[in-house]
Write a structure and sequence with these properties.
With 151 residues, this protein is mainly alpha-helical. The protein has one domain. Helices cover 81% and strands 0% of the residues. It is built from five helices and no strands. The longest helix is centred in the middle third of the chain and has 64 residues. The radius of gyration is 50 Å and the shape is rod-shaped. The mean pLDDT is 79.
């Protein structure tokens, strides 16, 4: 019986040694597979890198152009707001002029102001004095025309 036990132990040991040897071989094969990546997988990896880089560049370009467009639109908005404010001021001025039209004295003063400023009209028996020493008055010096003075 002792011999049978020895034989059984030897068989187990041989089987165990075979198992361990086979296990080491499989592990070594796996390690070699990990280190030696097939060419197709490398190519796929490079294609993925290229696609990611292309996407990243496209995203950056798109974000930059949209940022520029937003700046342009914000500038246009601020210009339009300034223009709106000026027009509102002018509208208020015109409303005041319309209110003055109801009052006869204010209407006469407005008409007189327009006649004097825009059409250079004077009242009867009124004397106009022109300063010849003024540098701005080119008509008096004889070197300008009426069109230049109006501008």
């Amino acid at each position: 019986m002792n011999e049978e036990k020895k034989i059984i132990k030897l068989k187990k040991k041989i089987n165990n040694d075979d198992f361990r040897r086979r296990e080491r071989e499989i592990k070594e094969q796996r390690r070699q597979k990990k280190h030696s990546v097939p060419k197709k997988k490398k190519r796929k990896f490079k294609i993925m890198e290229f696609m990611f880089t292309a996407f990243l560049m496209y995203f950056t370009y798109t974000a930059f152009t949209q940022h520029q467009m937003l700046n342009v639109l914000n500038n246009e908005i601020s210009e339009k707001k300034m223009e709106k404010d000026e027009i509102e001021k002018e509208a208020q001025k015109l409303k005041k002029d319309v209110e003055k039209m109801d009052d006869k004295e204010a209407l006469l003063k407005l008409v007189e102001k327009i006649a004097r400023d825009q059409y250079k009209m004077v009242k009867p028996n009124e004397t106009i004095y022109i300063d010849k020493n003024k540098n701005e008055n080119k008509l008096i010096k004889g070197i300008g025309s009426e069109k230049e003075v109006e501008n």
